[in-house]
Amino acid sequence: MNRIILHVDMDAFFAAIEQRNNPEYMGKPLIVGADPKDGKGRGVVSTCSYEARKFGVHSAMPISRAYKLCPHGIYVYPNGKLYSQVSREMFSVFYEFSDLVEPLSIDEAFIDVTGSIRLFGDGPSIGEKLKRRIYEKVNLTASVGIAPNKFLAKIASDLKKPDGLVVVKEGEIDSFLAPLDISRLWGAGEKTVQIFRKMGINTVGELAGFPKDILIKKFGKAGQHFYNLAHGIDNRPVYNATEAKSVSNENTFNDDVSDTEIIYKTLLWLSEKVAYRLRQSNLKGKTIHLKLRYDNFETISRDKTIPGYVSNTETLYKKIIELFDKNYQKGRKIRLVGVGVSGFDRQLGEQISLFDAGRSQKSRKLDELEDLLIDRFGKEVISRAESMKTKPPKSS
Ligand code: TTP
Ligand code: MG
Questions:
Q1: What is the rounded CA–CA span in Å between residue 33 and residue 14?
Q2: Which of 18, 51, 102, 108 is catalytic?
Q3: How far apart are CA 233 and CA 152, in angstroms?
């Protein structure tokens, strides 16, 4: 049966809220993040308005760099409580359209609306209604992608940002995908993209022209995955809250870092994201996970089971920092950090640690996990990067 999947992502979320609440910021380059202190500030940009993006400012950039690029910008410190409140209001709108809502972050979700057609009309009209309802409720714009699966919906929502609505119809999948740059492929990190380019593959269409067996020879299991995506095939369901086994988020730095202040800030941001998703789903977890990847791709995962359960940002952050301080080899450059929570109180039986996917799980579980990982982490898929490292592609 054909599905209708929506991917919703708010536009310049934190910055848009600040502009909404402070009309004098409207239409101006606005940067939400650390205090720039006349260019000497430490810490990073959370996000910025589209006006600021024109100057090259973006999320996760050191605030000092943002200040160089955009000295006349308006700089505001994040107000997490406010953003969470707005997020809750916005998610309540998502649930008006379907019970099957999978939160991905504070401003982003998949919604399976296949069962809602009779109530709300076809995919495109649901998309329009959703956007309108969000605007009515929180006075902010969202970008929406509508497609037969998650992969396509996620790409679609990003194509016409801000305030976009992009529909991918069943019969138009190939023509939709063909011109897209290969870097848009879910699970293709920088290294993989480089390999594709060396193979002369620069667009998804060019990848789609490659026979499956060659891709499998070159990339192993990932080859099958890339083949499927290039042909617009993605059968992963939208997981609603009660099905989740673990909640985690990770971040790859644009430039490798050893500055613990920046790493702490990122861990805080990730803890907030994870804790937020837990609360959003009414979950609390007993086991926390930290993942670190050094610049040479050496990756460590550490778990800690805590007394009681956690869904609170501060508690999670404190535990994560404890784990980090214990395990980080000071001075070494870090490429990626991840934070996760599992062992939910309602959960019986086997617990799956996403971060340990590549090492300790049986292969039967791996497929399932890889799917989850791609869902959870978007482009930077842990297992993918790891398999690239341990199994260099054979020339064929
Ligand atoms: P995003 O949806 O990635 O970004 P955005 O909503 O600001 O802009 P876009 O229109 O491109 O979607 O993230 C949502 C919010 O999460 C963002 O407003 C601020 C916060 N955030 C951080 O604090 N740090 C980060 O590194 C990123 C990526 C986001
Ligand atoms: Mg957004």
A1: 10
A2: 108
A3: 9
For residue 10, give the ligand 1 atom closest to its CA.
6
Give pTM, 2 decimals: 0.69
5-25 as b/e: b if 16+ CB within 10 A: bbbbbbbbbbbbbbbeeeeeb
Please give the share of the chain, as a percent, with pLDDT higher than 70.
Answer: 86
Each residue of 125-146: pLDDT tens digit?
Answer: 999 999 999 999 999 999 999 9
Of all atoms in ligand 1, which is nearest to the CA of residue 161?
10
Is residue 227 scored above 50 in pLDDT?
A: yes
- Ligand 2 centroid–CA 17 distance in Å is 12
Ligand 1, CB within 6 Å, residue ranges: 9-14, 46-47, 59-60, 106-108, 161-162, 269
CA triple 344-350-356, angle to 5 deg: 85
Distance CA 267, CA 327 (A): 14
Question: Ligand 2 centre from 15 Cα, in Å?
Answer: 10
Return the ligand number nearest the Cα of 47.
1
Averaged pLDDT for residues 67-94:
92
Instruction: Evaluate if residue 332 carries a pLDDT over 50.
Output: yes
Residues in the 5 Å CB sphere of ion ligand 2: 9-10, 13, 107
CA nearest to 264, candidates 292, 237, 235: 292
User: What's the CA gap between 344 and 28, in Å, rounded?
Assistant: 43
Banded model confidence at residue 206, pLDDT cuts 50, 70, 90:
very high
62 — phi, psi (to 5°)?
A: -55, 140
Closest CA relative to residue 230, chosen from 144, 150, 157, 151: 151
pLDDT of 40 reads 94
* 386 in active site: no
User: What pLDDT shows up at residue 219?
Assistant: 84
The CA 12 to ligand 2 mean position distance, Å, reads 5
Candidate from 63-72, 122-131, 244-253, 264-273 with smallest mean pLDDT: 244-253
Distance CA 143, CA 159 (A): 9
First to last CA, the chain: 38
Helices in 160-259 by DSSP H: which ranges?
A: 173-177, 190-198, 204-208, 212-219, 221-230
Centre of ligand 2 from the C-alpha of residue 365, in Å: 31
